[in-house]
Amino acid sequence: METAAVRQARVDLAAAFRLAVRFGLHEGICNHFTLRVPGTVDQYFLNPFGLHWSEVTASNLMIVDDDGNRVAGEGEIERTAMVLHGGIHRAHDRAACVLHTHMPYATALTCLEGERLEPITIAGLRFLNQVAYDDDFAGVALDLAEGERVAGKLGERSVLMMANHGVMVTGPTVATAFDRLYFLERAAESQVLARSTGRALRRIRQDVLSVAEEQFKGLDWLAERHFEALKRVLDREEPDYKQ
Questions:
Q1: Beta pairing, strands 131-134 & 97-101
Q2: Is the CB of residue 204 less than 8 Å from the CB of residue 176?
Q3: Mean pLDDT for all residues in the chain
Q4: Do residues 119 and 87 make contact, with C-beta atoms less than 8 angstroms apart?
Q5: What integer pLDDT is reported at residue 113 of this predicted model?
Q6: Which of these, 18, 3, 2, lies nearest to 174 by C-alpha position?
Q7: Does the pLDDT value for residue 217 go beyond 90?
Q8: Going by C-beta distance under 8 Å and a sequence separation of 6 or more, which residues neighbour residue 7?
Q9: How far apart are CA 47 and CA 28, in angstroms?
Q10: What's the confidence (pLDDT) of residue 9?
Q11: In angstroms, rounded to a whole number, what is the distance separating the alpha carbons of residues 227 and 179?
């Protein structure tokens, strides 16, 4: 019998998958979201490979250990999920939730030489000193050493921009991680659109950036409110995610 905390964790992660589809953050049946199983230090929930994210429910999430072995549930464990997510979960206790996507605008930034996420919008200000960069794309992540390398690149930051690949976004809860994923894509979208005009970016003064960085600290409660609102939409329109 699962505890209430484990059940809620399943529901929240399933909601994140459904919401990713709604916002166009998914890519076919690729990519992965994982969440540390409450009460454990070496197990996480993972989506079975082959399911479209619109098919993910709380009950069909598998439980996998940090070595990539299935502990509970049914389905295929995709190799790159075990390599990348396992590496980050092992290396970073704070990263209870790890979201990996190839979402279009953030990925577009990773395909531009020397490009960095610019703090030119309110959404972008959320990520001051929170983004790490891996500029050394090494192909499909099939080797455990690649997971360790990627985890090292993340360091103490919450977001990793992966050159020519996509993003890894982490957080202590599903709500915090998903909020970061959502606003990261919004910030990247604005930046790509601004760049597309060919005109110079209007940058924010350094003194304002310093103030903004302090303002955005300790606002995880906003992420919780955002996620609760999004789940209410799912409750009305896609209630089967809870099954």
A1: unpaired
A2: no
A3: 95
A4: no
A5: 95
A6: 18
A7: no
A8: 58
A9: 13
A10: 98
A11: 7
3-state helix, strand, coil in the chain (%, to 5): 45, 15, 40
Among residues 203, 178, 177, 181, the alpha carbon closest in space to that of 121 is found at 203
| Cα gap 61→135, rounded to integer Å | 32
- Torsion of Cα atoms, 186 then 188 then 190 then 194, to 10°: 180
- Residue 39's Cβ-count burial label (10 Å; 0-12, 13-18, 19+) is exposed
pLDDT one-digit tens code per residue, 11-26: 999 999 999 999 999 9
Radius of gyration of the chain (CA): 17
Mean pLDDT calculated for residue range 222-230? 97
Cross-strand partners of 131:
159
Q: Locate tokens 């994923």: which residue? A: 181
Encode pLDDT of 52-102 as tens digits: 999 999 999 999 998 889 999 999 999 989 899 999 999 999 999 999 999
In this predicted structure, the answer to whether residue 133 has a pLDDT above a threshold of 90 is: yes
Which phi and psi (to 5°) does residue 142 adopt? Answer: -115, -15
Are 230 and 20 in contact, with CB atoms under 8 Å apart?
Answer: no
Domain spans, the chain: 4-235
What CATH number should be reported for the domain whose range is 4-235? 3.40.225.10
64: tokens are 């996998």
- pTM value surpassing 0.90: yes
Which tokens belong to 91?
């290396």
Residue 35 or 146, more confident: 35
Length of the chain counted residue by residue? 243
